[in-house]
Design brief:
This protein is an alpha/beta fold. It is built from 29 helices and 21 strands. The strands form four sheets. It has a seven-stranded parallel sheet, with helices on both faces. Strand 3 and strand 4 form a beta hairpin.
């Protein structure tokens, strides 16, 4: 154990002689690498074989890339400009090739001298830069480069081995500089402490951790890479599952008040009022929740439900059961619009049952209070009083519920809506307001594949609502290729008018608000000029104005976005819900929870700027009544591109679980898990949650067995060290519930 500090040595010390303190600073700020151990776990993204060239033909636009290629041609041009009016400006154009395609590099001004001498035809090098378009040709402007002649000792040493590792890099730090830094600290890999129990490592035929680190950074063959990845995947899956298993174990030790609803109480009265019967799925999930609430350990349950599957109803029944049992229930919503919407729909669903202590309130009634940051002082005081006395059985609110002043009489259940929008600290602060830990129900309308659920929410029991309530209408979705077929877009606006003429309403969603602050002032102007090829996303304010004066003239068009005053937002939503507006032009503030059964059409502008899951969420806002829904995905992206394939996938299926798999396969793993972990840097570097489904399931079993036998991991000091390193305090907190 005395050897561990070698891996904890700060990079600014270990790299001082090689790359200097500036490099260590960039690594810390841009890549989150602080210690030798961090750098050893910054694995190559892919490898270049010296004899094989990178496909230049497949370079992605606007991305920072590293390519290995050969100089085909280099020409120096002179030109006149404002800075060099006498024709003394210099531009070096270098064409590189790799057999699959050609790419132009350009250097200007004083920057031409070094490359002019070094980048001679036939020279091979690594080039790194951002891919842009000039005169309809791909180019890298002022790329950094590293010659691959292998004639200098350092270069030969750095690129020793047959495979060149290419690392996840940033504009400020090229892959080969990271490679040099890794080579410098690689000897320390021998001192890495192995987290896997020996029986597990040997039983699965895995190489040791030091060997895996050497092979991933300095492989001689593809087999080396495969051995290293197999081992490192196990580490990631296993250490993560041990962290989750320890959470489950710790939670199972906590005491909680069992909450059993009394017969013929508030819940029974509420069920009697419902104008419909619960679906089979809603009944089954409610039973699971009631079973958990009746135990003396806190419930920790994740309720996944397709958009519109009735999660709110299931959650409300759980809240009423807790009120029946003498406790209070709190629902935490991510935005004021959503908190107000939930408050409105809960009080409407409950009717006189929500009028406890008031004239006309029913016998079993309780009070339902709303608590948000923008409430007036008097209303807020009253809400706080109702909570501390226990007068209010139900409270619905935003982060305002977490503030210290907020006290409960007896908090029994916390329901968190759209959990990925909350940090764990916020949930913990609310849970800390109970005399004993309250039960916790986490809801999400984003379908999560089974492996992601195991990886990210591994200590929550999961319930899934996958049936739509009776009477729900199907939603037809179509892609509208605005650039190829402008008449399709004109037809889209005609369809909106037709829906309104039939007595319905429509949403138009845009990626941006479009006020000055949002457009970023000067910065936005510059980018529009610089990137004539890539215009800024469409904005609510501009689109609303154009529609009201153009294709939707005469209709009542309103706008809704996140920077409006909460009272104004609420007023707009009320008018739209009451049918006093025909078309709502909005940002994604309507993505979750907004429920207007009369809205049947949605047009999503620049749909390619949204993720698959987000489009699915947005689409779920229409077709909530008995009339069929229509969702039009407007895009200017070319038919063959990845963006259009994503949109075609959304248009082709209403199955959110299928879409979440597509989403996960198309995006980098870290995006999905990072989002799910509320912005914490994902600890997964080589594990792919869809691909490695079986491995994760096996790791979960192994972890559960290890923790059951030795909850404090006293016999496995290496595993304890790995847990501390991989899941420092903050990350373990993030893992707690997502």
């Amino acid at each position: 154990m005395d050897l561990v500090p070698a891996l904890e040595e700060p990079l600014k010390q270990s790299l001082k002689s090689v790359l200097g303190p500036a490099t260590a600073k960039v690594m810390a700020e841009h890549l989150g690498l602080h210690s030798v151990g961090d750098l050893l776990h910054h694995y190559p993204r892919r490898y270049e074989e010296r004899g094989r060239l990178t496909p230049l033909a497949e370079l992605p636009m606007d991305e920072h890339v590293t390519v290995v290629a050969q100089v085909a041609d280099a020409r120096l041009h002179t030109f006149a400009s404002s800075r060099a009016p006498r024709g003394k400006g210099q531009r070096l154009e270098v064409t590189i090739t790799d057999g699959s395609g050609r790419l132009q590099l350009v250097f200007f001004g004083n920057g031409v001298h070094k490359p002019h001498k070094e980048l001679l035809p036939g020279t091979r090098a690594m080039f790194a830069g951002k891919v842009s378009v000039f005169n309809r040709r791909l180019q890298l402007a002022h790329p950094a480069y590293e010659l691959l002649r292998g004639d200098s000792e350092e270069s030969a040493e750095t690129w020793a081995g047959a495979l060149i590792p290419l690392y996840p890099a940033t504009a400020k730090l090229e892959s080969w500089k990271i490679g040099k830094a890794v080579q410098t600290v690689l000897p320390s890999a021998q001192e890495a402490v192995d987290p896997l129990p020996p029986s597990l490592q040997e039983g699965r035929g895995l190489v040791t951790l030091p060997e895996a680190l050497l092979k991933i950074h300095r492989p001689h063959t593809q087999a080396d890479i495969a051995d290293a990845r197999a081992r490192l995947k196990w580490d990631e899956a296993f250490v993560l599952q041990v962290a989750l298993a320890r959470r489950r174990h710790a939670d199972a030790q906590l005491p909680a008040v069992a909450r059993r609803p009394k017969p013929d109480g508030l819940l029974t009265a509420f069920d009697d009022r419902l104008p419909f019967t619960l679906t089979e799925g809603q009944r089954k999930v409610s039973e699971e929740i009631f079973h958990d609430l009746a135990t003396e350990h806190p419930m920790h349950r994740l309720l996944q439900g397709e958009v519109g599957s009735g999660k709110t109803l299931v959650a409300l029944r759980a809240m009423l059961a807790v009120v029946d049992a003498g406790g209070q229930a709190a629902m935490l919503a991510p935005t004021e619009v959503l908190a107000q919407q939930h408050h409105r729909s809960v009080t409407e669903m409950m009717g006189e049952l929500a009028e406890g202590g008031m004239l006309g309130g029913a016998e079993h009634a309780t009070k339902v209070v709303l608590l948000t940051g923008s409430m007036g002082a008097a209303a807020r005081r009253q809400a706080l009083l109702d909570l501390v006395t226990g007068e209010a059985g139900l409270v619905i609110g935003t982060h305002a519920l977490i503030e210290e002043k907020v006290q409960f009489h007896d908090l029994g259940l916390v329901v968190v809506d759209e959990q990925h929008r909350f940090g764990v600290e916020q949930r913990d602060a609310l849970r800390g307001k109970g005399k004993q830990p309250p039960h916790l129900l986490v809801m999400t309308a984003t379908p999560i594949p089974r492996t992601v659920a195991m990886t990210v929410f591994g200590d929550l029991e999961t319930s899934v609502l996958d049936q739509l309530p009776a009477g729900r209408s199907p939603i037809a979705s179509h892609v509208v290729p605005a650039a190829d077929k402008p008449h399709f877009l004109a037809r889209a606006w005609e369809r909106v008018r037709e829906e309104v003429e039939n007595g319905h309403q429509a949403y138009v969603v845009c990626p941006r608000i479009g006020d000055e602050e949002d457009a970023g002032g000067k910065g936005a102007k510059k980018s529009a000029e610089d990137e004539a090829e890539k215009r800024p996303p469409l904005a609510v304010l501009e689109v609303a104005d154009q529609l009201a004066r153009g294709p939707l003239q005469g209709l009542r068009v309103e706008v809704l976005h996140g920077r409006m005053h909460p009272d104004d937002k609420d007023a707009v939503m009320r008018r739209f819900a009451a049918g006093e507006a025909d078309v709502l032009v909005a940002t994604t503030v309507i993505e979750v929870g907004v429920n207007v059964p009369n809205a049947t059409a949605m047009v999503i502008m620049d749909a390619d700027r949204f993720g698959v899951s987000q489009l699915h969420q947005l689409r779920g806002r229409v077709g909530r009544g008995s009339a069929p829904g229509l969702c039009l995905l407007v895009s200017e992206m070319p038919e063959a591109g990845a963006a259009r394939q994503r949109l075609d996938a959304v248009a082709s299926t209403l199955d959110g679980f299928e879409l979440s798999r597509i989403d996960l396969e198309q995006r980098r793993e870290g995006d999905v898990l990072g989002q799910a972990q509320s912005g914490a840097r994902t600890s997964l570097r080589v594990l792919a949650v869809i691909e490695d489904e079986e491995l994760i399931a096996e790791a979960r079993q192994e972890a559960a067995a290890v923790v059951a036998a030795d909850p404090e991991l006293e016999s496995l000091p290496g595993l304890r060290t790995a847990l501390d390193a991989l899941l420092d305090e903050e990350r373990e907190q993030y893992l707690e519930k997502g």
